């Protein structure tokens, strides 16, 4: 090192190296994010009258194209033999990533239908309305809102928001670099915070939900970011492969700037724990579940359905990759912790759900319990564990979407009738709808011949195979507790007499009908003939890992 | 490939359920005839199974085997041994009578204003057929996982049958009754679901052990598992086998039901209509005792022997406790429920006595108890429907105004207390002989159950049918032709089984011998008995 003045500036010796980007392998995400950007432009330039139709068509096309792209990649063996790390080590294209991206694209596609439903409420001022406030910031029912409704304003920007969130979710489980992970988290979270606040009915509850979600979410993000910083200090890199290599005891050359900290186990343990915390928050596992019931209850129901199904898929994907690719060397440290988290989630979710009187809160606690079940598969640390968790996520997300779609249909003059007492006798008034909802509840409870049972069996089998019989026993006990409150809802719907002045079931447009129908079909098919999908998840059960030598 | 007869036997009622449910709301009579027709088709198919079955042939016959969920090692495997054939025949025979007896049971619900879309009559018969299909499947499944699926899934239609179609003749006002009913339905479901989930843990555990030991990977195939067990390829650690046995046994004991997990049965039988009560006790509960024979003894013979003392004591408690509580009941349906608990005690005693007479007796007992309880409960249901009360104290002198009703009630009651000449006598005798030859003390205690049975049946008859004609009995109509058509064949069957049980024992005995060799037990030689004296 000379101290010449000229050394302050060096001349480039070579042409700058541009990283090679595998555009084709990244196409699913790129399509969705591109369409989202296009959606923003639509908001700006397309006449108000045409926006709804334009956005709807654009979103559906984009998500369908993304799904097709996933299929093309999967057929091209990108999930197995051709798996690669794309985008200069930032994003993995492998089995789990493609499987989850496919599920996410489908879930988002179905959610678009729910978002677009405009027949649930009577038209206001001759204009059909959806679940979202025309002027969310205005006082509910105040003059500003009246004006907005009369002018036919619609929050058609929910569609690009949904696409952005989906794009983030699709990167989340594929991220192969902690910084990309963090960016994906923010890209998926920020639109969700906004979507939560947009409910047309019960605006205050909705805004409260959004604030809670935002504050707690920001908190979790901060944890994640701090954890990332500590891990960087430990490994001198943000790349998954490099961190794994350092943990594995083969540190490449020391970075002189980090010589003091590199390889310091305290940094690794604290950093790893913080990153885990951030992900467990998104998953909604106890003790990081506090936001779930409030947000599920307050958010507009289509958003809740999307969030409940898709966020869980994305977050579990990221969690799986982190644990299996980055932290396998720490297995003996995180396994007991996750045991505790899984047991707490299963038991607390099931027990607290018993006392709930609001159907959306009930489903929220049930989702917490389900996080626990999926964690049981995650803990197995085997290809079976990964594929069982993947299968469970696919099964669970469709049941959840279906259940929330049903919730949007049971209404009284105040909007959705989410209080359970109002569901009494629903089975006598609308046997078909109540029957379908009962099917979803039975799937949640894990009754044979539904997808819930196949998923639960797969997860528990993987856990038992890995020697975690204790988790299986706790899971079975929690299932028995959980069965109680699912059954209670069925009792209420079928064996109680309808209340006078109770809610009615509105006849929705084909959009919602197709959502409920599709969810019911998926629930039954995955329950009765799950083999094909288990195979699919089984093939997708291997993560790609960069060779340590090429990792940066 | 030959015609899948077993599958057809299960599919027929399932198809019937779908067709019945699809009958339009106004055509409820058509729905009833549809249901009856499909249940009779099932009888025909079951008869075909019975005819094609060769008692001296292979252990499992008419087998079908297809891959289903390869990833879990689950196969769609059906097969019947002698015991299963008998149980399938029982189920198929009983159900048409239930449909006949419950002909008008759901109509009152149909008349309610909100019921047009709900279609209770169609639902009632469709659910009964659905339960039949699932019970038949669980008798025929030779894959543990396949069995488990139907064992669990049958709870759902039953739950709706109990909770949705109550007996209107309770001692409470209408609103209170609805509560009682849904309480009974929920209690039924939670007990059985809890048992089933514990079994699920054991099923998974079984798979894990099998996946470790077997060359072909994990499997649920009963035949493969039992053979691997016998050849020593599959070995359980002692504690593992005991835990797995307990997981299975717990579920079956709840279903059977065995004291102390029996408490759901009186509620469920009391609050449901008579045909549904019969469906529960005569058909569905038999899956529990049947599964003890097929799965507990077949898969975990050593643990079964280990658990025998405890199970025997529980069975004896069931016998005596059930009989004593039956004596104390005011409600005649609950009385029959407690009597059933006592009888299930006998069945379980016979199974775990580990003698061939005991197990043959237990199998015959399942059949005879099914027919006898069906006859008694259905006649009681006819009686209740006339007066609108389940309380024994509300009746008296019925035999003077409705002699046919009283007569059939008496014969059914005598069969229940195992009078010689009726079917239950044969089976109870065999169980007692079988028990006595190995456990004399248990045999003696069990005999008290017979004495108590005579008491509760005869007192029931005396208080309802004899004595001065009460106001209620004065207007009582005798049995209608439909009701007679239901009861007469059942009673004829009871007497036939009592006088000439040989066809049945011929079918059952070879299967029992297989089970005995699974457990590695032989009947105690007479010399051993001599030595004990």
Task: Give a verbal description of the structure.
The complex is a heterodimer of chains A (552) and B (533). Chain A is an all-alpha fold. Chain A has one domain. Chain A is built from 20 helices and five strands. With 533 residues, chain B is mainly alpha-helical. Chain B has one domain (5-532). In chain B, strand 1 (61-69) and strand 2 (74-80) form a beta hairpin. The longest helix of chain B is centred in the middle third of the chain and has 40 residues, at 174-213. Chain B starts with a helix and ends with a helix. At the A-B interface, helix 15, helix 16, helix 17, helix 18 and helix 20 of A face helix 6, helix 7 and helix 8 of B.
Short characterization:
By secondary structure, chain A is an all-alpha fold.
Q: What is the number of independent domains of chain A?
A: 1
Largest sheet of chain A: 3 strands, antiparallel
Helix content of chain A: 55-70%
Number of strands of chain B: 2
* Overall pLDDT score of chain B: 83
The secondary-structure class of chain A comes to mainly alpha
The gyration radius over C-alpha positions of chain A equals 24 Å
Q: Overall pLDDT of chain A, averaged?
A: 85
Q: How many angstroms separate the termini of chain A?
A: 24 Å
What form of chain A results from the Cα inertia axes?
globular
Give the termini distance of chain B in whole angstroms.
57 Å
Strand arrangement across the biggest beta sheet of chain B: 1-2
Low-pLDDT windows of residues of chain A: none
Strand content of chain A: under 5%
What is the H-and-E element order of chain B?
HHEEHHHHHHHHHHHHHHHHHHHHH
Query: How many helical elements of chain B?
Result: 23
Task: Determine the structural class of chain B based on helices, strands and strand pairing.
Answer: mainly alpha
């Amino acid at each position: 090192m000379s101290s010449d003045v000229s050394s302050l500036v060096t001349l480039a010796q070579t042409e700058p190296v541009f990283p090679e980007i595998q555009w084709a392998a990244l196409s699913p995400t790129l399509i969705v994010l591109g369409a989202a950007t296009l959606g923003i432009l639509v908001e700006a330039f397309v006449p108000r009258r045409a926006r709804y139709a334009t956005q709807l068509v654009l979103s559906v096309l984009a998500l369908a194209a993304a799904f097709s792209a996933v299929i093309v990649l999967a057929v091209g063996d990108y999930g197995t033999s051709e798996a690669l790390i794309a985008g200069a080590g930032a994003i993995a294209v492998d089995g789990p990533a493609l499987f989850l991206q496919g599920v996410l694209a489908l879930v988002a596609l179905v959610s678009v239908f729910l978002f677009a439903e405009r027949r649930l409420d009577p038209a206001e001022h001759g204009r059909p309305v959806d679940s979202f406030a025309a002027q969310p910031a205005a006082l509910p029912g105040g003059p500003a809102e009246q004006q907005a409704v009369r002018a036919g304003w619609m929050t058609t920007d929910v569609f690009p928001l949904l696409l952005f969130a989906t794009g983030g979710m699709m990167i989340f489980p594929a991220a192969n670099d902690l910084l990309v992970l963090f960016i994906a988290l923010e890209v998926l979270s920020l639109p969700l915070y906004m979507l939560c606040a947009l409910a047309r009915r019960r605006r205050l509850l909705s805004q409260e939900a959004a604030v809670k979600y935002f504050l707690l979410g920001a908190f979790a993000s901060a944890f994640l970011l701090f954890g990332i910083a500590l891990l960087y200090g430990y490994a001198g890199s943000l790349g998954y492969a490099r961190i794994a290599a350092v943990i594995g005891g083969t540190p490449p050359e020391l970075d002189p700037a980090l010589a003091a900290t590199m390889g310091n186990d305290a940094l690794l343990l604290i950093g790893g724990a913080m990153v885990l915390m951030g992900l467990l928050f998104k998953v909604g596992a106890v003790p990081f579940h506090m936001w779930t019931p409030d947000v599920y209850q307050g958010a507009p129901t289509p958003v809740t359905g999307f969030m409940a199904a898709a966020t869980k898929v994305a977050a579990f994907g990221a969690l799986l990759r982190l644990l299996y690719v980055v932290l396998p060397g720490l297995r003996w440290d995180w396994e007991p912790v996750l045991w505790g988290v899984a047991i707490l989630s299963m038991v607390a979710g099931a027990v607290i759900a018993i006392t709930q009187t609001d159907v959306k809160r009930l489903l929220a606690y049930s989702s917490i319990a389900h996080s626990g079940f999926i964690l049981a598969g995650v803990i197995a640390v085997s290809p079976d564990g990964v594929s069982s968790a993947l299968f469970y996520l696919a099964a669970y997300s469709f049941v959840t979407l279906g259940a929330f779609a049903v919730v949007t249909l049971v209404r009284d003059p105040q909007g959705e009738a989410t209080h359970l007492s109002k569901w009494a006798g629903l089975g006598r008034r609308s046997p078909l709808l109540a029957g379908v909802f009962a099917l979803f509840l039975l799937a949640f409870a894990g009754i044979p011949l539904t997808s819930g049972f196949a998923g639960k069996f797969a997860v528990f089998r993987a856990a038992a195979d890995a020697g975690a019989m204790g988790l299986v026993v706790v899971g079975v006990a929690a299932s028995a507790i959980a069965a109680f409150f699912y059954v209670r809802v069925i009792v209420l719907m079928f064996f109680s007499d309808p209340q006078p002045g109770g809610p009615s079931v509105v006849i929705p447009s084909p959009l919602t009908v197709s959502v409920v129908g599709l969810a019911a079909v998926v629930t039954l098919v995955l329950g009765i003939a799950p083999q094909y999908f288990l195979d699919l998840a089984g093939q997708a059960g291997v993560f790609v890992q960069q060779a340590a030598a090429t990792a940066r | 490939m030959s015609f899948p007869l077993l599958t057809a036997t299960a599919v027929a009622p399932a198809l019937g359920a779908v067709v019945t449910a699809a009958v339009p709301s106004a055509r409820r009579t058509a729905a009833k005839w549809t249901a009856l027709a499909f249940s009779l088709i099932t009888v025909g198919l079951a008869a075909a199974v019975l005819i094609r079955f060769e008692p001296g042939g292979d252990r499992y016959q008419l087998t079908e085997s297809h891959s289903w969920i390869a990833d879990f090692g689950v196969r769609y495997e059906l097969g019947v041994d002698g015991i299963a054939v008998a149980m399938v025949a029982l189920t198929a025979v009983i159900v048409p009578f239930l449909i006949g007896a419950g002909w008008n049971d759901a109509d009152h619900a149909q008349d309610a204003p909100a019921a047009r879309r709900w279609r209770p009559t169609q639902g009632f018969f469709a659910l009964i057929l659905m339960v039949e299909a699932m019970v038949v499947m669980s008798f025929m499944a030779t894959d543990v996982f396949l069995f488990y699926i139907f064992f669990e899934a049958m709870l759902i239609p039953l739950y709706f049958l109990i909770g949705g179609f109550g007996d209107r003749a309770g001692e409470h006002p209408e609103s209170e009754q609805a509560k009682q009913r849904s309480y009974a339905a929920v209690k039924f479901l939670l007990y059985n679901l809890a048992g089933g989930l514990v079994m699920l843990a054991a099923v998974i555990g079984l798979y894990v052990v099998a996946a470790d030991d077997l060359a072909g990977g994990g499997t649920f195939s009963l035949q493969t598992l039992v053979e691997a067990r016998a050849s020593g390829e599959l070995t359980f650690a002692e504690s593992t086998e005991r835990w797995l046995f307990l997981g299975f046994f717990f579920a079956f004991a709840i279903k059977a039901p065995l004291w102390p997990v029996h408490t759901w049965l009186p509620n469920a039988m009391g609050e449901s209509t008579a045909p549904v009560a019969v469906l529960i006790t005569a058909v569905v509960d038999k899956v529990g005792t049947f599964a003890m024979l097929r799965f507990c003894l077949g898969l975990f013979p050593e643990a079964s022997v280990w658990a025998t003392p405890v199970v025997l004591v529980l069975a004896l408690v069931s016998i005596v406790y059930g009989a004593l509580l039956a004596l104390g009941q005011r409600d005649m349906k609950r009385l029959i429920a407690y009597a059933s608990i006592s009888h299930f005690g006998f069945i379980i005693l016979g199974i775990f006595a580990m003698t061939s007479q005991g197990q043959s007796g237990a199998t015959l007992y399942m059949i005879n108890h099914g027919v006898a309880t069906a006859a008694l409960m259905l006649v009681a249901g006819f009686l209740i429907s006339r007066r609108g009360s389940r309380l024994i104290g509300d009746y008296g002198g019925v035999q003077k105004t409705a002699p046919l009703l009283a007569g059939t009630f008496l014969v059914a009651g005598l069969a229940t207390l195992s009078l010689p000449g009726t079917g239950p006598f044969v089976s109870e005798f065999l169980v007692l002989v079988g028990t006595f030859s190995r456990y004399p003390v248990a045999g003696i205690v069990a005999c008290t159950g017979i004495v108590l049975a005579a008491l509760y049946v005869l007192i029931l008859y005396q208080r309802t049918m004899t004595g001065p004609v009460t106001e209620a009995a004065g207007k009582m109509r005798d049995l209608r032709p439909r009701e007679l058509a239901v009861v007469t064949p059942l009673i004829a069957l009871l007497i036939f089984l009592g006088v000439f049980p040989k066809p049945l024992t011929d079918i059952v005995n070879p299967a029992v011998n297989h089970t005995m060799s699974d457990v590695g037990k032989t009947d105690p030689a007479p010399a051993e008995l001599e030595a004990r004296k």
